[in-house]
Amino acid sequence: MMASTSAGQQRYVRAKPYPEWKVKVLKELEELIKKHSVIMIFDLRELPASMLHQYRRVLRGHGVVKVFRNKLFLIALRRIYGDSVNAEIEKYLSGENGFIFTNENPFDLYRIIVDNSVRRYAKPGDVLQSDIIVPAGNTGINPGPVLSRFSKLKIPTQIRDGKIWVARDTQVAKPGDTVTPELADLLRLINVKPVYESLKVKAVLLNAKYIIKGEELAIDVKAYEDMFKQAASWAFNLAVNSALLIPETISVLIGRAVVEARNLAINANIPTAESIGFILAKAQSQANALAAVLANKAPELSK
């Protein structure tokens, strides 16, 4: 049920009392929600416990990583924010989810998550994001029927000192390829972990009102840097061509004005300290050109 608050907002009120363990969890959730303006929701399905523990360590100091039931999370959220909670958040609360409570920029936090991706073995059905190269060298594997696996994937091998050696670095897959059971089995056998896996962020909730989809967090920082540089360059050129006097353009505009004034004085034959040398040089050049023309038509004048 809903009850009015002093501010006129509606807040969630449960008709029946909660069990003691739920009261404790709800209290913890409410405190986390009150202290943090940003809540990141990530998918727990097929997430290894070891990866979850690693991210708890990685994100220590950046945010609090917790696992709660979806319904309890939604109840706590509504108890704090009432009807101002963005209703669309419910569609991101299906299945098993984890939550990161933070006050940091969600894009910066997502970059930390991606930068700390965990390497794992490829599984059949994985779609690869990069080339897979089987490195040359000793595999440490005894020769036997396993040789047929290398042969099937066209990996050249040699037998040395009773072990299988890969003769040369060999590409066995490229970006966009789907991992086959044979490839997954062989990569695990030679201990190659080609897949990087990180938390699968479903959405970010800002102050319970605004939602950022998980896929929108993966921005190309370099591309945005290039865009800002290009925009700054265009703005600078516009300011210069518009003769807009600002700290960034003043030296360029003064320099251009000096050059234009000097050129005007030279072309108008106005002798100044800055132009006299150029005027005399121009006069000398013109005189030499005239003498060359006259020399061809009246050689006696050149003596």
UniProtKB/TrEMBL annotation:
GO function terms (MF aspect): large ribosomal subunit rRNA binding; structural constituent of ribosome
Superkingdom of origin organism: Archaea
GO BP annotation list: cytoplasmic translation; ribosomal large subunit assembly
One of the Pfam families matching this protein, by short name: Ribosomal_L10
Keyword list, A-Z: Ribonucleoprotein, Ribosomal protein, RNA-binding, rRNA-binding
Cellular component GO terms held in the UniProt record: cytosolic large ribosomal subunit
InterPro entries tied to this protein: Ribosomal_protein_uL10, Ribosomal_uL10, Ribosomal_uL10-like_insert, Ribosomal_uL10-like_insert_sf, Ribosomal_uL10-like_sf, Ribosomal_uL10_arc
Ranges for domain Large ribosomal subunit protein uL10-like insertion: 122-192
Role of this protein: Forms part of the ribosomal stalk, playing a central role in the interaction of the ribosome with GTP-bound translation factors.
Family from the record: Belongs to the universal ribosomal protein uL10 family.
Subunit: Part of the 50S ribosomal subunit. Forms part of the ribosomal stalk which helps the ribosome interact with GTP-bound translation factors. Forms a heptameric L10(L12)2(L12)2(L12)2 complex, where L10 forms an elongated spine to which the L12 dimers bind in a sequential fashion.
Database matches in HAMAP family: Ribosomal_uL10_arch (MF_00280)
Protein name as annotated: Large ribosomal subunit protein uL10
Gene that encodes it: rpl10
